[in-house]
Amino acid sequence: MSQVEGTLVIIGGAEDKKGNCDILREFVKLSGSKHARILVITVATELPIEVGNQYIEVFQRIGVEDVRVLDVSNRDAANSPSAVQQIENATGVFFTGGDQIRITTLLGGTQIDAALHKGLEKGMVLAGTSAGASMMSSTMIVEGTGETNPKIGIVDMAPGMEFIRGVVIDQHFAQRGRLGRLLSAVAQYPHHLGLGIDENTAVVVEGLSFRVIGDGAVSVVDAGSLVYSNLPHLRKDDDLALCGIKLHILPAGYRFHLRDRMPILDGDEDSKREGNRELK
Amino acid sequence: MSQVEGTLVIIGGAEDKKGNCDILREFVKLSGSKHARILVITVATELPIEVGNQYIEVFQRIGVEDVRVLDVSNRDAANSPSAVQQIENATGVFFTGGDQIRITTLLGGTQIDAALHKGLEKGMVLAGTSAGASMMSSTMIVEGTGETNPKIGIVDMAPGMEFIRGVVIDQHFAQRGRLGRLLSAVAQYPHHLGLGIDENTAVVVEGLSFRVIGDGAVSVVDAGSLVYSNLPHLRKDDDLALCGIKLHILPAGYRFHLRDRMPILDGDEDSKREGNRELK
Fold first, then answer.
1. A225 pLDDT exceeds 60?
2. Is residue B80 among the annotated active site residues?
3. Is the entire prediction scored with pTM above 0.80?
4. Interchain proximity B148–A216, CB inside 8 Å
């Protein structure tokens, strides 16, 4: 059983759009390079025209000839045959930032939702940044407080779009001091691995593993190793005590196995994949 | 061999000075309550009069009759017999915030330095906040960048006053997103436990263990469990990869054994100490 249905590019927000655009370039490459047909979905943002135009400009600049924008502002639009057709036609779909709850409430259970899952199975690449990253998992962080110690009350969770199971994703991770809120999320169900993705940093998920690209790092927070948690006895806003969390810090080039919950350190698997840094 | 010479109160900065002043009250209590003789050392700050007056006001308000300020602006002053006498007379010494390098360069190897170590052995209580917290260890963080992933280049270290061995302390921890810089520090010598102390939060170290007091939490970062680090091969400013770090989040009432590198969870030791929350 694969934890992810296809290839995902999950970006921690604020990806470079003016310089080398390494992360967006990788997404385009995975989507077919010059033959890529990119669809930007702006449902998360309340500024769909501005944000859409920005991504059209970037993707064209890095060589994509076929790039379109799909905005969805109501559920009717999310069930329209033309929207489904645009997804079926795309080799790569990109979700912009904004508010993740707009994504799940406007798209959840619609024909677009179904077309995205079907597309992934058929080899489409799905990328998302910021809110578009958070919504990838089965349960997602909706909002929460940064720069604080872990407390139950600081993080609101909700169902996500379920493109990847077994993880909870947080973005802008180091930049907004979000260790506390990610710990608060994974402590509730330590089966979930917490992926804290820094800005201008992404994980590329293929099958059961991911690799890191970009400028920062990915913090993998594994609460499965907890030896003590006071959570069962807590009231809202009480401070969390968590003993024995496992933490991995993975910058660009490093890989992680999602089911084994372990970094892949020796290139023993498929070190044939281009762009992978040699690790040992 | 004890890791700490006496009782230390190590405060993560921004301790409450207007409300209940729980942390400062605990320091006063440990120093003898009504019989406490408190000496505030302002060497870290370039505003010794303002900062000194502020602490005199707070300590008097919470019932200390004998509170004095000692400022040291050059090494001559740090060798003066009257300064030494003030330390010998104090039951509790409190280091204010400021710049930790001022503390070590102005006091290191002086008669004040010697008197502080001697005082601790005889039962004096030593407290410090912010810069006054960082300087407590053998090697201290001088400065560094917050809100970033771990990199060697982001943290400057220097010798500390060596009141506690085996740890590196960081303060304003959650509030300034300092996980990355504390990891960068402990990765260099994983023998050191990283203590990330939140604002208005403190560890009270007695013998081989500490307990947490205050509003936030203490993050204990144990890199001793590392299974992989790319540090030996890095150039300055390269991103650190760290796999298998152990992390404990301890809010008020929780205790930690410094030599065993483990939280004390069952109250099996001396749960007789007042103010300890029952853990099981």
1. yes
2. no
3. yes
4. yes
